[in-house]
């Protein structure tokens, strides 16, 4: 009997034949692979959030006051913004119900000018004081009196806005802390 052509082309297998698991993962490897993958994913998620939170700006406000205005249309405001975080931020705008506009002013020698914002340094303070950088409440809706409190909102580039209750002091008030 003569071999058929199809049989001649077929390779001859020598020894026992084991089926191959092509494209399948062996069951005993599934557990360790899943555990390792999960550990890597969780480690990656945790590290990014904690380092950025630790270095973000952490702002607080102290020593806020407004001298009782001497005119019906203008008032000044002073305060200290403390940043206990590792990244700087910037005071970009201020709003208040008592004034049509609240602007940020920079004082350089004897001249002052409105500016778009002031930096709050990392691990430092932005001091707004009489004779220095300060807030100007313009076009007052009413003239605040000593003993009242004025509410204002400080807006920043990165941090959430901070609402401040600013007490109105006498027109000649000088803070004892030097600020």
Automatic annotation (TrEMBL):
SUPFAM superfamilies: DR1885-like metal-binding protein
Superkingdom, natural source: Bacteria
Annotated Gene3D superfamilies: PCu(A)C copper chaperone
Protein name per UniProt: Copper(I)-binding protein
């Amino acid at each position: 009997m003569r071999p058929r052509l199809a049989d001649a082309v077929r390779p001859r297998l020598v020894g026992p034949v084991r089926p191959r698991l092509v494209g399948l993962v062996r069951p005993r490897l599934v557990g360790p692979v899943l555990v390792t993958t999960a550990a890597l994913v969780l480690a990656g998620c945790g590290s990014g959030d904690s380092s950025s939170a630790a270095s973000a700006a952490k702002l607080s406000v102290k020593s806020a006051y407004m001298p009782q205005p001497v005119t019906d249309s203008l008032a000044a405001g002073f305060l200290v913004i403390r940043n206990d975080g590792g990244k700087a931020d910037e005071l970009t705008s201020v709003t208040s119900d008592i004034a049509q506009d609240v602007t940020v002013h920079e004082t350089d020698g004897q001249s002052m000018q409105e500016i778009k914002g002031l930096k709050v340094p990392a691990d430092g303070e932005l001091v707004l004081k009489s004779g220095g950088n300060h807030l100007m409440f313009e076009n007052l809706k009413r003239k605040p009196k000593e003993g009242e409190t004025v509410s204002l909102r400080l807006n920043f580039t990165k941090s959430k806005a901070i609402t401040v209750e600013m007490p109105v002091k006498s027109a000649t008030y000088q803070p004892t802390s030097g600020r």
